[in-house]
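Data deposition worksheet. Section B asks for the primary sequence of the deposited chain exactly as it was used as input, without tags or linkers unless they were present during the calculation. Section C holds the resulting structure in token form. Section D is free text for depositor observations; keep each observation to a single sentence. Incomplete worksheets are returned to the depositor.
Section A, Depositor: J.P.
Section B:
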Amino acid sequence: MEAVLGLMVILLGVSHGVETHCDGRQDGAQCYGALRGTVDIQLMDSTSEIPRYHLSKNSLRILDVLNNKVIYNTIVHRSSFFPSNGTFRINNLSRNDSGDYTLQTFHSDGKSSGKQTLQLFLQAPVSSVLLVSECLSQGEMRVSCLSEGGDSPQYSWALDGRTLTDAELLSGNNKSNNIILKQQVSGRLVCSVRNNVSDVSEEQKICRFINCTLINGTEILGWVPVDSNSLCIEPTREPTPVTPTSVGTSWFIIGLKAAVVILSLSGIWIWFTWKKKTILEGPAVPEKVESPDNSVFMIEMSPYSNT
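Section C:
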């Protein structure tokens, strides 16, 4: 609900903010005003030398001025007249304000001194523009320009600041709201929508060509929007399901690796312990006596031996 109210406020703001100006000094002039907007119609250059004049709409008098004083104004609640520059302003325009307006001037004796007529047309202004694009398989790009509101909208296209040419179009033309761009056409595309009381535009970068190779060797070729590389994203792999057999096998491998590490460390510790003991006790073989003078002989005498 808030979003809808916000959109209504925006649209009303756009309409109320539209002001148009019209030169109605020439007979047969055509003027345009925006619905719920304001229009300034210049009726004459100066009113100082015109004793009396009145303005009628569809033969019904709406404004009467005598000696630069407004005698009456049937729409005074939303209009103003400025004698200094001969401009008649109408605010909060509606469809009923459209029609033929006739200005008639008089001499001081009351005789007519001239008459001129203008036409006032009312249009709803274009409030917003939306570009919808689609990248086709062979590199073409289909683009639709969608406008919100606006009477008698007129479309035009530009690419990188210049008018889009027929040589760049596979379908449509520069004045249609649906076009198809040819292959290899790139840049910033702008769609403008206008009528006699408004002018709105929207821009967008067009497709680019993707050429990449995935991890598994698959080659990807295709066209995607310029801010996307979705074709080159590696797809998510499904996780391997866990089964009781795989869980048991995993624990067996972990235990085996742990046993190998423990045995290796134990062997290293035993070797270093044996090495240390050998160094402290010295060699097990007695040293050889070099000098016989230092030798001691021990003879055991048996009592049963012959004397």
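Section D:
The chain has two helices and 20 strands.
The mean pLDDT is 79.
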